[in-house]
Amino acid sequence: MKFPKPTRKRTPSGLIEVLRLLTVVLGAGCGYELGRTLENHGHGTVLGPFGGVGIGVIVGSGLGYVLGGVFGRTASSAAERTEVALREISADTLIAGGFGAFAGAVVAAACGWPLFLIPQRLVASALFGIVIVTSAYVGFRVGGAKRDDVLAVIGGRAGVSPRRQANAAVVKLLDTSVAVDARILDVVRAGFLHGRIVVIQPVLGELQRLADSSEPMRRARGRRGLDLLETIRREPNVDLEVIDDPHPDVDEVDAKLVRYCLDQDMALLTLDSNLAKVADLTGVRVMNLHTLSLALRPPVVVGEDVSVHLVKPGKESGQAVGYLDDGTMVVVERARPLVGREVDVRVTSVVLTSNGRLVFAHVSGAPAAAAQSSA
Q1: What DSSP assignment string belongs to 257-319?
Q2: What is the dihedral of CA 291, 192, 255, 81, to 10 degrees?
Q3: Is 30 exposed, middle or buried (0-12, 13-18, 19+ CB in 10 A)?
Q4: Are residues 253 and 178 in the same domain?
């Protein structure tokens, strides 16, 4: 079975090379100044044709190359920690990211001008370039990640609060309990669940362990979950994305889900009532499909006694029609003489039609005797 590979966070090599180049220039400048100082103090040629300046530039450049790579990776990792799940570069992301990069560069320029007080112009320029590039990059990542807030501030979405965007803009994080429930596919195909859905690698790991279990029931659940995710991935109104473990330092999968939802401002899609309670207490938006199923369950069940007001005769002989509080039609057999009265009935069947549910019942108790006597 083909399944999308996890999205891996890759270190942006371009940023590292730019920072490394600037660090090499900085190291060469420092080496040049140090070598010139040594020569001015009477130190002659050190190695053959190389003087103090040459040795200083070579050593400084080498150290700058090594330290620049370390600094570049460190700066990149620090910037990635501020990213909020930028998986697709949309127009909104580019605009907000560009604004963030510009703001970061302006702030860096305003705060970094004292660097030019350094007498060595080459060293000052290299340091200033490092500060500008790093700040602009961090500003782009933060601006792109917070694009809704940025666009609201700059007027790109005037009058629309980021918190009131359409539900399609809310990213859903899916847990294992939903993945193994076949109803999720019906919910997706009905259009109630659409947009971007994220699955973290630990959830796939749980499904894989279930699919490899020696117990037939657990194995069937795991395979069903993997098949459901593959089917959902092919649905046109859903963008299913698998990402790596966002918090490898956390052991429990549920804790990973809650923390990642908090970090990325996602909604948790679950059927686990305990996880839903914990997430809700933590401040995570919860989309509990069990709550949805309870809201859509039949208003009455077979064998249940209910009270209904009969308002008109039915289509068939002897039938009377009433309505429950939610508008569900109730067809009561042998109750036409009781039209206009409130009667107790017992549900015999519930039929699902294209227009909703239709309940069939018969009169119970005293009204039944009255109906028979009237007949």
Answers
A1: HHHHHHHHTPEEEE--HHHHHHHHHHT-EEEEHHHHHHHTS-SS-TT-EEEEEEEEE-SSTT-
A2: -150
A3: buried
A4: yes
pLDDT exceeds cutoff 70 at 372: no
In terms of domains, do 36 and 133 share one?
Answer: yes
Q: Is residue 175 domain-shared with residue 273, that is, in the same domain?
A: yes
Name which residue leads in pLDDT, 211 or 6: 211
Amino acid type, 172:
K
Distance from C-alpha of 324 to C-alpha of 300, rounded to nearest angstrom: 9
Contact in structure between 316 and 325 (CB atoms under 8 Å): no
**Residues 172, 177, 180, 185: is their CA dihedral positive or negative?**
negative
For the chain, the first-to-last Cα distance in angstroms comes to: 65
Cα dist. 133→100, 144, 249 in Å?
A: 12, 16, 31
Instruction: For residue 174, list its beta bridge partners.
Output: 269
Position 331 in a domain: yes
Domain count, the chain: 3
Copy the structure tokens of residue 67: 């330290």
* Residue 1 within a domain: no
DSSP, residue by residue, 183-213: HHHHHHHTTSS-EEEEEEHHHHHHHHHHHT-
Asked if residue 357 is part of any domain, the answer here is yes
**Range(s) of the domain holding residue 352:** 305-374
Per-residue pLDDT reduced to its tens digit, 269-289: 998 889 999 999 989 999 888
- For the segment 123-151, the average pLDDT, to the nearest whole number, is 81
Domain CATH for 336 = 2.40.50
SS3 232: helix
Task: Tell me, yes or no, whether 311 and 275 share the same domain.
Answer: no
| Whether the predicted model's global pTM rises above the 0.70 cut | no
